[in-house]
Amino acid sequence: MVLISPSMLSCDFSRLGEETKNISLCGADMIHLDVMDGVFVPNITFGAPVIGAIRKYSDKIFDVHLMIKDPYKYIDDFKKAGADLITFHLESDSDAIETVEKIRSLSIKPSVSIKPSTPAEAVFPLLDKVDMVLVMTVEPGFGGQKFMADMLPKIKKIKDEIDRRNLDVMIQADGGIGEDNIKALYDAGVRCFAVGSGVFGANDRAKAIAMLKKSVE
Ligand code: DX5
Ligand code: ZN
After folding, report:
1. For ligand 1, is residue 194 a contact (CB within 6 Å)?
2. What is the tally of structural domains in the chain?
3. CA distances from 20 to 91, 123, 128 (A)
């Protein structure tokens, strides 16, 4: 099974609701929402009020990727906004275990992400506590960056550890994903793909999503 989670960062923000509806009808499995605070990453996007406002435009899984300094503080807000899955960064200031427990206590799926410079082993202590690990395949902050192929061995390491411990944890990759690298990511163990420009930059979004899925067959 392969899940495509189009990143709304690359859509037309002036029509965020309609874009969310449109991409849901184009075969998106999830809606990837990049929250940036201008502190954890050098860019500011949107927060819980905006996510809450577009919630009614889709019944897909709202896959919220928090690139913020203190995610723990805002978990309740994102629950109210309608998040189904929340990814926070291991490099953030929040305590990872407390943040995972807080997310789970609200019946949301917890997920932890690591930046390119953070080693695979850093997430090992959390593998039995999270539903997903998001491996960044670009430096977080902006869409449209070049895929970092050197993240593939790191993904494989995490996948091997998940299998060795017989855990049920999905791996998501995010950044620079397209038809040219999705198969390599799949082979390394990724089953969920956050794709921004690769979907929203295409003339035919439905075809782009279908082609991404076909590329891993
Ligand atoms: C980057 C974001 C990504 C980004 C992906 O910090 O987390 O989700 O939107 O965009 P592309 O696919 O264009 O690299
Ligand atoms: Zn993201």
Report:
1. yes
2. 1
3. 29, 31, 32
Q: Which residue range forms the structural domain that includes residue 100? A: 3-214
C-alpha to C-alpha distance for 11 and 194, rounded to whole angstroms = 13
Reported residue count of the chain is 217
Q: Nearest 5°: phi and psi at 123?
A: -90, -10
| Distance (Å, whole) CA 108 – CA 103 | 6
pLDDT one-digit tens code per residue, 28-38: 999 999 999 99
Atom of ligand 1 nearest to the CA of 201: 13
Any catalytic annotation for residue 34?
Answer: yes
The reply to whether 29 belongs to the active site is: no
CATH of the domain at 168: 3.20.20.70
pTM as predicted? 0.98
Question: How far is residue 217 CA from its own chain's centroid?
Answer: 22
